Q: What sequence folds into this?
């Protein structure tokens, strides 16, 4: 049975942990605000860029031969798996890792490679012997657009060298602080979708230079922008998940402190009652 000093020491330990989780929650909340602001600024630009690509591609449909538009039989696949570099964010990483593993395991092709973005995913797949064609660790400490261009350049290199025939991204999309939406999106070949009803409306432009040369410029740039948006989505979702996880940990610590304090008082009361009974018993023995 735990002594009073043991219980008191445990209460002190839980209180220290609670202070840490409170601090981590506050830090995550501050980072989330900044990440959310960057994401909300990037989303409209990424959407508009994709709509512009759709428009130009439609205009040049018969003449376009850009290598990133080339559709081949999907024999060799690549998955860009975006996780975090740190833990303490609930099921954020495990959900992405499990989904990517499920996607890989469900494919009939054995020629599958991964591009791991974030230390958690990289560690998981390296330990299990998956083929890794690119690893980007530590980028979320100081996330910048050039990280997106590096990842984009790598998957373009793999695709144009015909080492892969399809490239997909598996990541958490940010919806709110407490909600992340797991997504699997095709990155290559680029398949521009028609804009949704009510979306951007483009006039019939005259191009200078011709649309083909414009496509040569905007297709790689669009890929850079879309990967940048994915990184921002994942980072905002990560900080939201961490804030919620640390809030839950703080509340759990509060409950543990309450339970331990109650147990401490019961044990203390029991010890006092035992001492009183011993004193009364000794006094009665002296009288007798």
A:
């Amino acid at each position: 049975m735990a002594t009073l000093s043991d219980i008191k020491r445990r209460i002190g330990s839980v209180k220290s942990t609670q202070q840490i989780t409170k601090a981590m929650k506050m830090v995550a909340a501050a980072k989330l605000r900044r990440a959310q602001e960057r994401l909300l600024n990037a989303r409209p630009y990424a959407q508009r860029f994709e709509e512009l690509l759709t428009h130009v591609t439609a205009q040049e449909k018969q003449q376009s031969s850009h290598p990133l538009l080339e559709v081949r039989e999907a024999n060799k696949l690549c998955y860009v798996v975006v996780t975090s570099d740190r833990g303490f964010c609930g099921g954020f990483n495990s959900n992405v890792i499990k989904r990517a593993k499920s996607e890989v395991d469900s494919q009939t092709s054995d020629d599958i490679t991964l591009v791991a973005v974030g230390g958690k995913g990289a560690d998981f797949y390296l330990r299990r012997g998956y083929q890794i064609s690119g690893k980007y660790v530590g980028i979320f400490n100081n996330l910048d657009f050039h990280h997106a261009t590096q990842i984009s350049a790598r998957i373009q290199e793999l695709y144009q060298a015909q080492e892969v025939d399809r490239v997909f991204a598996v990541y958490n999309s940010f919806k709110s602080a407490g909600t992340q939406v797991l997504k699997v999106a095709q990155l290559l070949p680029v398949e521009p979708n028609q804009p949704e009803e009510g979306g951007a409306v483009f006039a019939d432009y005259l191009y200078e230079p011709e649309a083909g040369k414009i496509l040569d410029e905007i297709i790689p740039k669009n890929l850079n922008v879309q990967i940048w948006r994915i990184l921002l989505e994942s980072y905002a979702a990560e900080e939201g998940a961490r804030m919620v996880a640390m809030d839950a940990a703080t509340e759990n610590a509060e409950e543990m402190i309450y339970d331990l304090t109650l147990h401490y008082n019961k044990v203390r009361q029991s010890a006092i009652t035992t001492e009183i009974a011993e004193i009364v018993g000794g006094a009665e023995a002296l009288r007798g």
